[in-house]
Amino acid sequence: MAGVGPAPKDPSRRARRNKDPQPQTVLRFEKAEAPDLPGDIDWHPRTREWWEVWKRSPQAEVMSETDWSFLLDTALMHHAMWSKGQWTLAAEVRLRVSKLGATPEDRARLRMVFADADEKDAKRPEQPKSQSRYANLRVLPSRQVGEGS
After folding, report:
1. What's the sign of the alpha-carbon dihedral 86, 90, 96, 97?
2. Which domain holds residue 78?
3. Nearest partner of 53 among 87, 101, 19, judged by Cα
4. Which parts of the sequence are annotated with region: Disordered (predicted)?
5. How many domains does the chain have?
6. Is this prediction's pTM over 0.70?
7. Average pLDDT for residues 92-102, to the nearest whole number?
8. Distance (Å, rounded) from C-alpha 98 to C-alpha 47?
């Protein structure tokens, strides 16, 4: 008996073939150096700190010129939020930085991982099956009716 249920449908007769409707476009990556904030604005100190954090972030290693331009527009919103109290911009700033992997949840959604985590996993010795978390379990002797309480 090969399996349970009806035989699979002939692939040529399937309604859904799960092909990509659009072919993937491969672009040449050109890393852009993180620019300084423009000097024609008296930036709020929190925005200056925020910008420096992004410049030092691991994500900066894979940011192109358009990414930095997008982040600069976001910096203007961040500045207005802190200097003018325009807190209605907070939601937009949050959405925009999530596209660049600002939080652990964002990075997980974008399938970003830190390289050192992979290196640490590779260096971790593999435990033999006998040393698994259940290796020290033992069977207790059965109790007879009337023994103990």
Report:
1. positive
2. 63-114
3. 101
4. 1-41, 118-149
5. 1
6. no
7. 96
8. 17
